[in-house]
Amino acid sequence: MNDLEKYFYNNSENLIHKWKHYFEIYDKYFSKYKNKDLNILEIGVFQGGSLKMWKEYFGKNVKIYGVDINPACKSLEENGIEIIIGSQEDRQFLQKLKSQLPPIDILIDDGGHTMKQQIITFEVLFDLVKEDGLYICEDLHTSYWYDYEGGYKRKTSFIEYSKNFIDYLHAWHSRERSFKINNFTKSVHSIHYYDSMIVLEKRKISPPEDLTTGNYVIPIYKPDLSFFKKVNIKIRSLLQKQNY
Ligand SMILES: C[S@@+](CC[C@H](N)C(=O)[O-])C[C@H]1O[C@@H](n2cnc3c(N)ncnc32)[C@H](O)[C@@H]1O
Hints:
The protein is α/β, with parallel strands linked by helices. The protein has one domain (3-219): Rossmann fold. The protein contains eight helices and seven strands; from the N terminus they run H-H-E-H-E-E-H-E-H-E-H-H-E-E-H. It is elongated and about 70 Å long. It binds S-adenosylmethionine (SAM).
């Protein structure tokens, strides 16, 4: 059992609500942040149990911020835990929050889990996460539930939205004018999907470098690409005509 599992299974204080398999994932990404000066933001306070768990796990130098729509959550504040009341669906509230909080090391979206909430929270708060921080969105299975605005391959789902992240990660290699490097390309090192959870690992990214060392020792095989080149030239000129 890792330290978070030990805490969770021994918890007899404020209720914590997490999926069993999350604990292994948390520990995998969180352990390197233990006992550092940290700012953690969790959207979705509920009974306050997870905020207390983070406080215990990360050590005495952590400052925890919780956001919830339920005004009663304010009473769960304690030393090292600050609670801000508002809706993660409200861009103005999130913008204000962003201007008031320090840069965040780990952001966990465990709020209302609707598509709108997950997308708006990502769009406003992704930048608040530090250059070497983590952005986590939980309970992605709601992307497959109609009552959360999800549905298999439904355009409005967070899962479909997040599939664009895979393109952004590769934008360095784009040969198309409509597909450009963006802030995500320059600041995300890796995207990790688990059942119901996405972990975005941030890192300052410089353009990828294609390297070789050593010497050629056998003749290289050159496939005949003349057909594909001709087709490619035709497609490109057609696309250029359409200003694509
Ligand atoms: C799954 S619970 C959070 C569980 C908690 N993180 C834990 O691990 O024990 C979801 C919380 O999100 C809150 N919530 C629902 N809609 C919200 C919204 N629009 N903005 C902020 N919080 C919201 C609910 O009030 C509830 O407390």
